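Re-run with default settings, no changes from the original entry. Doing this only to confirm the output is reproducible before filing.
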Amino acid sequence: MNNIYKQLFEDKLIDNKQHEFLDAIHTKKLLSLYYELRLLLYLGILLFTGGLGYFAYQNIGEIGHIISMGVIGIGIIVCFYFIQKFSEPYSNNEVKIKLVYFDYILLLAALLIISLITYIQIYFDLVELLINWSSFASAAVLFFIAYRYDNRALLSMGITAFAATIGISITPINWSTGDWFSSSNLYLITIFLGLILIGAGVFSEFKNIKKHFKFTYQNFGIILFYIGCVSSIFDNNHNYLYATFLLLSAGAASYYTWKTKEFLFFLYSNISFYIALSFFVFSTLIDINEAEILLIYYFPVTCIGYIVLLITKKSHFSND
C-alpha cells in the first residue's frame, strides 16, 4: 500500500492532499468510526422505542391508552414524512439514498408500526385471536418497506416475522395460552422454510429483482435448513434417515460453495456435514468393544485437522 500511493504521487496521478490522506490511513493516524457510529445509532433507536413503551406502561393511568396510541401514530406519520421526502423511486436494482440517517428513520418507523399493532391487540384483548394474523401483518409491513426502500435490515426482520407466522419460535410453545405443542412437525417446517428462503434468494437473482437480497435470504435459509436437519437427528425416531439426508445435502453444498468461493456458506455446510458424520461414527463404534479409545481422540484429531485444512486453503477464498 505504501509503495502504491507513493508511486501514484510520483506519477502525478494524485495530488499532495490525496497523498497525505492515504498516508494518514496507512499509518493509522486516521481511523474510520463508520461501523461504531452505525451501531450506536441502531442501539439508540432500539432504546428509544423500548423507553417509549416503558414510559407508556408506567404512566398509562395518567396519559391514557388512546393518547399513547395517538402519539405512536404521530411518530409514524413524522417518520414517513421524512422517508417520502428523501426516498428514491422504486427500482429492482440497489438504491442509494443520499440522506445518511435514512435507514435509521426507516427502522424507527417499522418498529413504531409493529408497536402500534401490538398495542391495539393488547388494548382490545385480541392477542389470542389475532396472534398469527398480527405476525403475518408485521411480516407483510416489513417486507413491503424493505423492498420499497431497499433495506436489508428490515428484510431480515421480515423473514423473522414470517417464520414466527408459520409457527417457528425459540420454543414450541403457544405463549399466549401457555400450551406446549408436539415438536414432531417442527423439523419439517424448519427444513421446508429454509428451502423456500434459499429458493427465494435464487429467484431474486435469476429475475434480477433486488438480487442483492440474495445473501440475506440464503443466509437465513441455510441456517434454518441445517438447524432443522441437525435437530431431527437427535430428537426423532428416524434419526438415521435425517442424518443421511443431512450428510448428502451438506456434502453437496460444501462442494458447490467451494466452487463458488462462498466461505460462510461453505463453513455452515462443513459444520453440518461434520455433525452428521460424527453421528454415524459414534453410532457405529459405540457398541464395538475397545473402541472407546478411538472416540476419545476423534474430536481433537478431526477438529485440529479441519482447522489446519482451512488455514492451508484460505487462499482459495481470498480472491473474493
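The chain has two domains: 32-174, 182-320. The radius of gyration is 25 Å.
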